Amino acid sequence: MQIDAVPLKRSITLSMLTFYGLGTIVGGGIYALVGKISVEAGIYAPISMIVASVLALLSALSYAELSARFPSSAGTPHYVHEAFQKNWLSIAVGWLVIATGVVSAATLVNAFVGFFSDLIVFPRLPGITLTVIALGGIAVWGISESVAVAIAITVLEVGGLLFVLFAAGGVLLDAPQRILETIPPLALEPWLSIGFGTFLIFYAFIGFEDMVTLAEEVKSPRRNLPLGIMLAIGLTTVLYVSVSLVIVLALPQEVLIQSSTPLASLIQHRGETAVVSLTIISMFAGVNGALVQLIMAARILYGMARKELAPRWLSIVNPKTQTPINGTLLSSGICFVLAVGFPLITLAKLTSTIILLIFMLINISLVIIKHRHPPPNLEVPVYPIWVPCCGAISSGGFVVLRIIELAK
Predict the structure, then answer these.
(1) d(CA 254, CA 136)
(2) Collapsing DSSP states into helix, strand and coil, what is residue 218?
(3) Are 297 and 102 in contact (CB under 8 A)?
């Protein structure tokens, strides 16, 4: 029997994939960033949200087409290999993606344990240990079960945002009459503010790239992967714009500047229980992101091993659960070591820069593939060449801004 004779379990439907993607994108980022973007862009924060979603959509469309052309769990490194035909580059990109995922997971685990310790006194090391074991156990359990857990937490975190919208009372109902307040004039200053807000909130749209690593576990991947990515981005945009609209219309700018938790400020009139509940939801939103990152890292390890870009033992799939057990154990182990033993703040800041570099490379890869290969069959969506070109330019622009920010 070959080492990778057991396949992954193809059981994920379009609806499961969409909710999984929604959870990977929404995460805890919106809970943390929605106030900061409102401070940067002021009343024009919803415009920043829309601009950021359009920029994210450019790279998402490239991922959508590539995932349909090459439905492989290896994802990003496989796409790069198809374009450049360089093993060393594919291996480097693959390990960079894995590193960003594991560092993100470790950062989120640390944050979850820290928040939990604030609510209930609990030692840090046992907290990290139990959290990583639980997440690794869920990831090994089975892809259907892992996605079900991720979806359950996604419903919880989206429910938290919907509760904020409901608790804000009639603000959203009044939005049609006040919508002109959020439309910026044709002047430099407001658009600079919108630009700063866009740069900040763009990171809350990252996550769709993790969806492609489920290619060998999704039913009808050529159809469902591109559609799932688009649906996840679309739902996220509607949710983000609605929440930012309520915040900027309901809270005065001076309150936004002073408040580190504007979502909590919106529901304070509902009592302390509501505020604590929202805090707990934001905690679980973060740990949901950690679970997704571990699943993603394990799938890329599995996909790279099958293509002989990583050690072959990483392609072993458990016959019972049909999950890449060695890849999951390795990514969970590295996550534990990072969470316990290393300062993660600098690494966490670097991960977003690396992801943007990867976005730029993915868009360039699609341009090369479009020139090299004839249009694929009708099952594969084909987008105009300007989509990956604009995606590469926008990602590169964000990389430059990010490097300037890190250098300060």
Answers:
(1) 44
(2) strand
(3) yes
Domain boundaries, the chain: 14-407
The tokens for 39 are 């401070």
Give pLDDT tens digits for 343-372: 666 676 678 888 989 999 999 999 999 998
Q: What is the pLDDT of residues 329-343, one digit of tens each?
A: 999 999 999 988 876
Q: Name the percent of the chain in helix, strand, coil, to the closest 5.
A: 80, 0, 20
Quote the longest CA-to-CA distance of the chain: 68
Q: d(Cα 47, Cα 185) in Å, to the nearest integer?
A: 12
As a whole number of angstroms, the distance between CA 401 and CA 108 comes to 24
pLDDT per position as a tens digit, 85-143: 999 999 999 999 999 999 889 988 888 888 788 778 888 899 999 999 999 999 999 99
**Among candidates 397, 264, 359, 332, which has minimal Cα distance to 62?**
359
Tokens 């939990």 belong to residue: 116
Please choose, from the candidates 310, 332, 215, the residue with its C-alpha nearest in 3D space to the C-alpha of residue 3: 310
Q: Name the pLDDT band for 272 (thresholds 50, 70, 90).
A: confident
DSSP 134: H
Domain 14-407: CATH superfamily is Amino acid/polyamine transporter I (1.20.1740.10)
Given a contact cutoff of 8 angstroms between Cβ atoms, the answer to whether 168 and 266 are in contact is: yes
| pTM of the model as a whole | 0.90
> What residues are paired with 218 via a beta bridge?
12
Q: How far apart are the C-alpha atoms of 27 and 353, rounded to whole Å?
A: 18
In contact, 33 and 203? CB cutoff 8 Å: yes
Instruction: Choose among 73, 76, 150, 102: nearest CA to 324.
Output: 73
Contact (CB, 8 A) for 40 and 191: no
Q: CA 29 to CA 351: how far, in whole Å? A: 14
